[in-house]
Amino acid sequence: MINLLLVGAGGFLGAITRYGVVFVVGKLVSQPSIPWGILVANVTGSLIIGALAGIGDSRHIWSEQARLFLFIGLLGGFTTFSAVSNDTLALLRASNYLGALANVGLSLALGLAAVAIGYALAKAN
Fold first, then answer.
1. Residues 105, 89, 41, 9: what is their CA dihedral angle, to the nearest 10 degrees?
2. φ and ψ at 34, to 5 degrees?
3. How many CA atoms lie within 13 A of 31 on its CB side?
4. Contacts for 95-101 with beta carbons within 8 Å, 24 or more apart?
5. Alpha-carbon distance 125 to 121, whole Å?
6. Tens digit of pLDDT for each residue in 41-82?
7. Residue 73: its pLDDT value, please?
């Protein structure tokens, strides 16, 4: 039960932080041609998860509960893209280049397809 609470608390904090970033960036960029706020959140989240994973791998400081709160909860709530990026880096570090390429390609292609299908189904009803 404590693990669920850790993930949930981190997710809450990550989601409201993402909202804040998107709001602030939206105020700074008028007439955006792409969703800059989400891009900033995705890249920032990826940078942070990479740094925290690197610290954890080199110093072995993250407990399982800390990893649940930080990686799955906080950064997962801030941006799920950071988790895909971190998993892909782990595959690359393990020299699983095909797996890394498949993870990126499938995540992007299937995610986009799923959004399109969900959108089409919702519009049809």
1. 110
2. -135, 165
3. 0
4. none
5. 7
6. 989 998 999 899 999 888 999 999 999 999 999 999 998 787
7. 96
In this prediction, residue 25 has a pLDDT band, given cuts at 50, 70 and 90, of: very high
For the cut 80, the answer to whether the pLDDT of residue 125 exceeds it is no
DSSP-derived secondary structure for 8-35: HHHHHHHHHHHHHHHHHHHHHSSS-SS-
Angle at which helix 2-28 crosses helix 36-59, to 10 degrees, equals 140
First to last CA, the chain: 38
Torsions phi, psi for 44 (to 5 deg): -65, -45
pLDDT (0 to 100) of residue 12: 98
Q: Is 98 helix (H, G, I), strand (E, B) or coil?
A: helix
Tokens (6 digits) for 54: 């690197």
- Measured CA to CA, the distance from residue 46 to residue 43 in angstroms comes to 5
CA-based angle 76:45:65, to the nearest 5?
A: 45
Mean pLDDT of 13-41: 89
